[in-house]
Records
---
Amino acid sequence: MIERAPASPRPLVSFDVVPALLVCLAAPAFFVLLLPWLGWLLLAAGLGIALVRERGRVRDAGPSLTRDLSLIAVGLLIVSSVPLKAELDNLAMLRFTLALGGAVVVPYVLSRWVYRDHAIRFPWRGGGRWRGWQWAWLGAVLVLGWLILPFYFITSGVYQNWPVVDTPDLIARLFVGVGAVGIWDELFFICTCFVLLRRHVADATANVLQAIVFVSFLWELGYQAWGPVLTIPFALLQAIIFLRTRSLGYVVTVHLLFDAVVFGVLVHAHNPGLLDGLFLVAAP
């Protein structure tokens, strides 16, 4: 289940936003500017301010801003320890698996067995059976992806940020990689970052903060040029849908459908003539 928000109202802007923002701004430092030292400074500043604000209350029962931000910081440090350039060789895929997996597992373990908290949860079914609007949105995601993604990837040239996939083996590896990263996105950005942040700030504020982290990661992964025009609303919508459905399974399904189109477009862009009849934009 999604943890209920605190009973007291959480304003859109409060002092707690300052350390949370500093921690989240470490993401563009790591993944956009590629300045690890700046990311480390921002994490240290955010955690330091949170610690001073809470003083001796860090070990008290209930949500702690310092503890929760430390979990996000640990995840960011683990992810930033490896280059995020999309590669499909065995070593690169192993490196991605260990780093991305660790960024979800380590904060969960620390929360559950060190902090003795249950802040991070993965509610797969959540709100139960999907309603009509949820099925309609799945169809809309496919249509929107089909209309927008080929134009974005091909006209901007960002498809070149992914390796050439021109053999069955490479195409299969791309399929696995795109899907695995899509699932991880929801485990870390929504079920970890967003859920931890909304314990201390308003849902809308927490959503903007997690989107900073989400979009920064996607930038280094390859969604550059005018990619944030697409990734920012996607990141914001995923958190809103998660709150409304309380279902990790649903937001993962949305993400995987979107990524299925991404996969098809990348194959199309790297193999002119192979899928020309499927998309409106011709391969270069």
---
Amino acid sequence: MAGSNHGHTPAAWTGVIIAFIGFCVSGAFMVLANPIGFWAGIVIVALGGVVGMAMKAAGMGAPKPAHEDLAKAIAAAKA
């Protein structure tokens, strides 16, 4: 993974941070036995995925490698 940008982009970090906050909210409300708060946390988790994909579409994600670059990356990963 050292030769790739997997997960080291603003889109990935933002999506994961939002989803993490959603998991924390959901977990707290699960302990408090509040179903509305639990589902609100789940919505925040889904929002993290949507924000991450939107940021990736806006160009803040890892660039897609060309087929030749992909073949080199696969060969390097196997070596």
---
Amino acid sequence: MNTFLTYLVIVGMLVFVGLPSLIGYARDRAIDRGLREAEHRDAERAGARTVTRSGPPPACVRQNRQKSASRSTEPSTAT
């Protein structure tokens, strides 16, 4: 009986810790869905055929990637 209660407490703690993140994830998905639907409605009103996001990333994202990738690494001086 003691082992069962231990497992029950552990599962309860995992639910207590994980439930807020799952609720937040579900809320974010609902918000994203609503934004996509609104964007699609606006595109239909404007007469556009489709709205896609599969193009290249914006210039600011490309610049950040290039900056971080172009940093030179210095050799370690630890002996």
---
Amino acid sequence: MSGEEKMRAKKEQAMGKAKEATGRAVGNERLTTKGRAEQVKGEAREAKEKIKDVFKKK
């Protein structure tokens, strides 16, 4: 996995978790949803990079 893309994916996931937790704490459903969406985006980016790695090894 590309180091830069891996860090970007982890950063998105962490930022999303923070937003989701903050949203839950203050009762802001929109912020909670936005945080969850960022997590999913980061997870998708990470999965894409893992797939690329599998094909590079062959």
